[in-house]
Design brief:
Layout (H helix, E strand, L loop, with lengths): L24 E2 L4 E6 L3 E4 L8 E7 L8 E8 L3 E2 L3 E3 L5 E4 L1 E2 L6 E9 L5 E12 L4 E4 L7 E7 L4 E6 L2 E5 L6 E4 L7 E6 L5 E5 L4 E4 L7 E2 L12 E4 L5 E4 L5 E4 L7 E2 L10 E6 L5 E5 L4 E4 L7 E3 L7 E4 L5 E6 L3 E6 L7 E6 L11 E4 L2 E6 L3 E5 L6 E5 L5 E4 L5 E5 L2 E5 L3
Parallel strand pairs: 3-11
Antiparallel strand pairs: 1-2, 2-4, 4-8, 5-7, 5-10, 6-9, 10-11, 12-39, 13-14, 14-15, 15-16, 17-18, 18-19, 19-20, 21-22, 22-23, 23-24, 25-26, 26-27, 27-28, 29-30, 30-31, 31-32, 33-34, 34-35, 35-36, 37-38, 38-39
């Protein structure tokens, strides 16, 4: 996966969980209601895992016997108990089977006192996910997703969001917090071909896990005197690379135990973008200022490539052909079959947008899914014929998880698509 320099600190807390209460609502006559079970996620047409619980409590009077009317406001779902009576503990329950009409769905709970007088109401929100459709999420933690890594060895996917790392659960839209003993802002996550996972933080540290993210070790620091942000990338030969964002570049071939200088020939500003190893051993580097370099000595020395004017991301196919996303006057996909001696334009479009993007190339089971900023996502199986897949001008980041679920990032929202 790619690593990026944050221009703005991402704000926001983790989403509320169905195990904790939502904010209470004060009623008249000294009663307060607490809704439990909001913000759940599930498959459309199925019951949510937890019941909806409305707790009605009073400082002086019992709430037992009050009536709570639950009604579906959006989504088209069903409720097992549309009308519930508050029990001796102050609780009223119902189960919610979500519908198919909308992704975000709402149930309203209205409270009536023992005389049938309306007191107040509260809303429960859920998110229902449908196959073969784009579902929108604005809830945390995934709405602030910044980086993602798919572990195809262990069938796991990890993401960075809000300065933390999360692991995808058995449901592709649910994420669990991954605890790493560190104090920085985690900004990148990578995985190699053996399932070894790496994460880096704002303090210039790199962490490694060899057991599916259960336990993490602190690697030797790539730049001992650097207290700030580093970029990190795992190349297709499982070497780990780190850069301070300028011309300082180091490489580790032993999971971060030792680091070797690899900055010969680089200039100021040539921080780490991506590195790929050609089948013949040649390394190709894209830097943060969109220049291409190559190295024939495992990265000790780099030579500038002048056959392309602007490279915003590179991706190497298994046979060594190199794909380049090059937004030079227009959005272009370029390809080299001769180790960057020459390039051929495969696709281009003018989008009239100044928006930049990240992680353009994604590949899954014979199909390339390519992000085009200002346009959306296009697909191809042969790099000759391209088709529009989803026109969405707001997308700027795009990933595919280990099961082929498409996960795209827009402005403070994320989009899921599970193709069956």
């Amino acid at each position: 996966m790619k690593n990026f320099i944050y221009s703005i600190l991402i704000l926001g807390l983790l989403s509320s969980c169905s195990k904790f209460p939502d904010p209470s609502i004060e009623l008249i006559n000294g009663y307060t209601i607490y809704p439990y079970g909001s913000e759940q996620r599930g498959l459309a047409g199925e019951f949510l895992q937890d019941s909806l619980l409305l707790q009605v409590s009073g400082l002086r009077n019992t709430s037992a016997g009050m009536r709570v009317e639950f009604s579906v406001m959006t989504g088209g779902g069903e409720l097992t108990t549309p009308v519930a009576i508050v029990d001796q503990y102050g609780n009223a329950y119902t189960r919610w089977k979500t519908g198919f009409e909308t992704n975000q769905q709402v149930v309203k709970a209205s409270v009536y006192d023992l005389n049938g007088k309306f007191l107040s109401s509260s809303n429960f929100i859920s998110y229902a996910f449908k196959p073969n459709a784009w579902d929108t999420m604005v809830a945390q933690p995934d709405a602030n997703m910044w980086d993602m890594a798919a572990d195809t060895i262990n069938n796991l996917t990890f993401m960075c969001s809000n300065g933390q790392v999360f692991r995808q659960t058995d449901m592709y839209f649910n994420w669990e917090f991954v605890g790493i003993n560190q104090s920085g802002f985690l900004n990148a996550v990578e995985v190699d071909s053996q399932g070894v996972i790496y994460a880096s933080n704002s303090g210039g540290e790199v962490f490694v896990s060899v057991d599916k993210g259960q336990n993490w070790d602190r690697c030797n620091k790539p730049f001992p005197d650097n207290p700030g942000y580093i970029a990190m990338f795992v190349s297709n030969n499982d070497w780990v690379w780190a850069s301070t964002g300028d011309k300082k570049l180091v490489c580790s071939k032993d999971h971060g135990s030792t680091w070797t200088d690899a900055s010969g020939g680089l200039s100021d500003g040539d921080g780490l973008g991506e590195i790929y190893r050609h089948p013949d051993g040649t390394l190709f580097l894209r830097t943060l200022i969109s220049r291409l370099y190559k190295s024939a000595d495992d990265g000790k020395n780099w030579t500038l490539i002048n056959t392309i004017e602007y490279a915003n991301e590179i991706y190497m196919e298994p046979n060594g052909d190199i794909l380049v996303y090059s937004p030079y006057y227009k959005q272009r996909i370029m390809k080299s079959t001769d180790k960057c001696q020459s390039f051929t334009e495969l696709y281009s479009v003018v989008t009239n947008t100044g928006m930049s993007g990240f992680n353009f190339f994604n590949y899954y089971k014979g199909t390339y899914y390519i992000l085009i900023p200002g346009k959306g996502i296009i697909t191809t199986t042969d790099m000759i014929h391209f088709e529009d897949y989803w026109n969405n001008r707001d997308l700027f980041n795009f990933f595919i998880d280990n099961n082929g679920v498409l996960i795209a990032k827009g402005n403070q929202r994320i989009f899921y698509r599970h193709n069956l």
